[in-house]
Amino acid sequence: MARPKQPKDDKTESLKKYGAFNPHPQKVVEETFSDSALEFFDPRDLVQVKYEMLRAVEKEGRSVKHASEAYGFSRPAFYQAQSQFKQGGVTGLVKKRPGPKSAHKLTADILAFIEQKLEEGKPLRARRLVPLIKEKFGKDVHPRSIERAVARRKKKRK
């Protein structure tokens, strides 16, 4: 069943762009977020909701169970937010991009091996390098990963 379309506005788009959009604002049942007189509190703002949940436990003395339920999170999600806040402050509450952050298979020794195999003036044959890398280093590397790594190296040299 398709989800109903939510109206798009500038704030929603901005929150999505910066990884601060709460995909489940309807789960936030805390009074301050449902009081229309308090325009400041927005259940769509994930960072604000997490911060207020942490503040409710720390400053107001609420139990983790009650605070996490009122703000639409599980207890494990509360502890994760608490850890993120301790490590990075308010910015730690912003969602990070999932997955690897760099080319983790192409280590420095593999890149040096690739550089050795490249011949000046000849086109890169990444598909031919894949079995050589597998044989020597025991790692499966996609040809496109090799091409991107070589392009990054060329760009750095310029």
Q: Can you lay out the helices and strands and say which pair or pack?
A:
Layout: H1 10-17, H2 31-34, H3 46-58, H4 64-70, H5 75-88, H6 108-117, H7 126-137, H8 143-157
Characteristics:
158 residues; mainly alpha; single chain
The whole-number mean of residue pLDDT values reads 87
**Strand portion, in percent?**
under 5%
Can you summarize the main beta sheet? none
How many strand elements?
Answer: 0
Oligomer: single chain
Structural class: mainly alpha
Low-confidence stretches: none
- Gyration radius, to the nearest Å? 24 Å
Number of domains: 2
* Shape by Cα distribution: elongated
Give the proportion of residues in helices: 40-55%
| Helix-strand sequence | HHHHHHHH
Notes on the protein architecture:
The protein is an all-alpha fold and 158 residues long. It folds into 2 domains: 10-93, no CATH class; 108-157. It has helices at 10-17, 31-34, 46-58, 64-70, 75-88, 108-117, 126-137, 143-157. Helix 3 runs antiparallel to helix 4 (64-70) and helix 7 (126-137) packs across helix 8. The protein is elongated.
